Amino acid sequence: MSRHLLSIDDVSAGEIQTIFETAAEMHDVQRRAVKKLPALRGRTVINLFFEDSTRTRSSFEIAGKWLSADVINLSAKGSSASKGESLRDTVLTVTAMGIDGLVIRHSASGAAHQVAGWIDVPVINAGDGMHEHPTQALLDGYALARHFGEGRAEADSLEGKTVAIVGDLTHSRVFRSNVKSLAKLGAKVVAVAPPTLMPAGVGEWAKSDGFSTSYDLDEVLPEADAVMMLRVQRERMSGGYFPSPREYTVGYGLTRERLGRLKDGVPILHPGPMNRGLEISPDAADAAGSLVLDQVSAGVAVRMSVLYHLLAGENEKENA
Amino acid sequence: MSSVLIKGASLLGQRTADVYVADGLIREIGAVTATADQVVDAAGLVALPGFVDLHTHLREPGREDAETVLTGSQAAAAGGYTAVLAMANTTPVTDTAEAAVGVWELGREAGLVDVQPVGAVTKGLAGQELAELGLMARSKARVRVFSDDGKCVADPRVMRRALEYVKTFGGVVSQHSQDPALAPYGSACCHEGELSGRLGLPGWPGVAEEVIVARDVMLARHTGSRLHVAHVSTAGSVEVIRWAKAQRIDVTAEVTPHHLLLTTDLLASYDPTYKVNPPLRPVEDVEALRAALADGTIDAVATDHAPHARHDKEHAFVDAAFGMLGLEQALSVVTTVMVEQGLLDWTGVARVMSGSPARIAGLDGAHGHELAVGAPANITLVDPAAQVVVDREASRSLSRNNPWHARKLTGAVVATFLRGTPTVLGGQLA
Predict the structure, then answer these.
(1) Hey, are the CB atoms on B316 and A114 less than 8 Å from each other?
(2) Within a domain: residue A2?
(3) Does A195 share its domain with A274?
(4) Are residues A290 and A166 in the same domain?
(5) B365-383 pLDDT tens trace
(6) What is the mean pLDDT of residues A281-301?
(7) A96 and B CB contact within 8 Å
(8) In the beta sheet, which residues pair with residue B209?
């Protein structure tokens, strides 16, 4: 496995399968009364978050703690450029404390890549701007694999499935990571958004990476084996990218009516936080097929798996 | 003043002759028998008129940690330049006669190239009120080129007034063409296309440049004034300029060395060395720019030499400073992409790096002349066959944001003479 997890490009299909297998073991731990494993005892992981986050940060924190790592959260929001310190200096300072792994979130695309070039400990990208969020895509894939594998997270259970990803694709790192990981898992992705929320150059990109795009959600839904709804940021709602929230919901929301057009038992995913009533109706969010809370629990298991594979030494892996 | 005999140079690559220089002027060309204080063996070298850079950031006053007028002048001389136009976006901005004279005097003290200040078009580069264009023009710095470079004069009414006003003293507005509504300052940083989509970098679409170029050539026609388009980066802008010239609109244009060779795909590594404004474009644009430089649609090569302290480049890509070095490698890049490819001969190089920029800047007479008896002895000697591997640590600039580092280029500046005095000899500062 690659030294860092910066992008889904860093993991092969086989490695995703390995991550899923370990995640399944970790998932069982979550249901135990005593949840700690000793795998990362004595290791220190820093969650360096330059951007607000509750769920991703706490998911990484719980994952690290259940592996017995010492996890320290550092909120560096606005502390770098605004204080005149370069990103490189901030990261070198944190690393010089003697850490074993760095989990980083930054509002700038590429930040994790740049950081990995400056320090010599494993770096895990917990979201870089509009670029990637690889652990989110792995947990989405894992939740889907468990769904289609009827509880067993076999990576090949997504083979040939059609997954619709719907929403603000332009600004979404979840989309960018998922479109890569779902392709590695053999799924067919249909990216759905109004033209103003499609990433630049998506036409050529889709052609070379083997996914398709559509402006018409209603045309896509009957064919979908899974639907992933993406959050639309509040600040993008007022006239910039689409005329009104109401019009967005009519065109691209997973409304109650659209729910009825899905094939039976189609799983519904959302990385959260949800805008209920905008991109996803309460009926969809709480539907029997909704995997929203499974995604959250899968998140801890998958992050445990990733931390384990990147940070545990060979001895610890043998004894695990 | 002393005399110099340049022996056996190939003048513009056309005929081999000796050039005898005394008291700042070219005195004799041919088989010279006179003795000189200094003899420079120029066998195998091409003699060109000293280069003129329409677009240099010297950072002084304000960011003397990144560059000073002296270190920028050293880099310019090493690059074969005898005159540079110092952009106005310093701290404070060059928007008064006093500020312009200050830069001009720093240039005189350095004494390596003629440092000609560019005046701001608007006060504080804010795009609202005209700066004191006339006072800058009447000052002893004799400012003729005005630019808010780094910012666009986006308001069409302000641009119209600026174009009208500079007519009184034969000035020109050099426009940084970027519609800030389509490519917001600070955030837009990657050519908008498939790669910006994949990388999640805010797009800087070519159309944000093209709509301003199109608007400005129409304003130039309407006002009957002179427009210069700074750092043209797209094929679409080239088409508009070609059309405007065919209509006899008074427009000139420049292209940077980096837009002639480097392409968008370099951003895939998120290395802020390659962050520049306007951004690096795809290969189709690069090819159109080369063709336009060859056919005269683009008049000049201008470096947009933009030094930055290392820590200002060591931020996340979108937070890092825009700009890259250019003065020392411009000739090598032009040799590699234009001369070696057969797109320009040395007469053409003299045109795009000396004659045309001198004329655009209003420096003709002092710079950009023919190599002829009686002309000022601003001369650059180039080794056309030199193979150079660029080492950023060898730069005379104070900064190291050099996109050419470790690249192999053809052509090197061997010597530079400013009014007959060598500033560079044997590739080293004299």
Answers:
(1) yes
(2) no
(3) yes
(4) yes
(5) 899 999 999 999 999 999 9
(6) 96
(7) no
(8) none
Query: Domain range holding A237?
Result: 135-295
The per-residue pLDDT for A84 is 74
Please indicate, yes or no, whether residues A78 and A191 belong to a single structural domain of this protein: no
pLDDT of residue B291: 98
User: Do the bridges between strand B379-389 and strand B408-418 make them parallel or antiparallel, or are there none, so unpaired?
Assistant: antiparallel
Cβ B320 vs Cβ B14: under 8 Å: no
Quick check: bond before B61 cis, omega within 30? yes
CA of residue B80 relative to chain centroid, distance: 12
What is the rounded CA–CA span in Å between residue B120 and residue B95?
Answer: 5
Domain annotation covers residue A227: yes
A39 and A185 co-located in one domain: no
Strands B421-425 and B428-429: antiparallel
A144: in domain: yes
Q: Does the distance separating the beta carbons of A202 and B200 come in below 8 Å? A: no
Q: A201, B195: Cβ pair inside 8 Å?
A: yes
From-to residues of CATH 3.20.20.140 in chain B:
50-360
A77–B contact, CB cutoff 8 A: no
Q: Is the peptide bond before B279 cis (omega within 30 degrees of 0)?
A: no
> How many pairs of residues across A and B have Cβ atoms under 8 Å apart?
83
Q: Which of residues 8-67 of B touch A (CB under 8 A)?
A: none
Q: Do A115 and A162 sit in the same domain of this protein?
A: no
Angle between helices A292-311 and A134-148 (to 10 degrees): 120
The nearest alpha carbon in chain B to A174 belongs to B200
Contact B319 A128 (CB under 8 A): no
Exposed (0-12), middle (13-18) or buried (19+): which is B421, by Cβ within 10 Å?
middle
Distance from the Cα of B203 to chain A's closest Cα (Å) equals 8
Q: How many domains does chain A have?
A: 2
In this structure, the answer to whether residues A174 and A248 fall within a common structural domain is: yes
Question: Does A1 map to a domain?
Answer: no
Q: Which CATH code for domain B50-360?
A: 3.20.20.140
In the three-class reduction of DSSP (H, G, I as helix; E, B as strand; rest coil), residue A65 is classed as: helix
Instruction: Check whether residue A152 and residue A269 sit in a common domain.
Output: yes
| pLDDT score at B146 | 98
Q: Is residue A162 domain-shared with residue A255, that is, in the same domain?
A: yes
* Contact between chains at B199 and A110 (C-beta distance less than 8 A): yes
- Residues of chain B positioned with their CB less than 8 A from the CB of A110: 199-201, 270, 316-318
pLDDT score of B167: 97
* Residue that is written with structure tokens 């040939």 in the block: A160
Considering the candidates B53, B285, B299, B304, report the single residue annotated as catalytic.
B304
Integer-rounded Cα Rg, in Å, for chain B is: 20
Tell me which residue of B51, B45, B49 sits closest to B385, measured CA to CA: B45
3-state SS assignment for residue A64: helix
Based on the residue annotation, tell me whether B114 is a catalytic residue of this protein. Answer: no
The yes/no answer on whether domain B3-46+376-429 falls in CATH 2.30.40.10 is yes
DSSP designation for B169: G
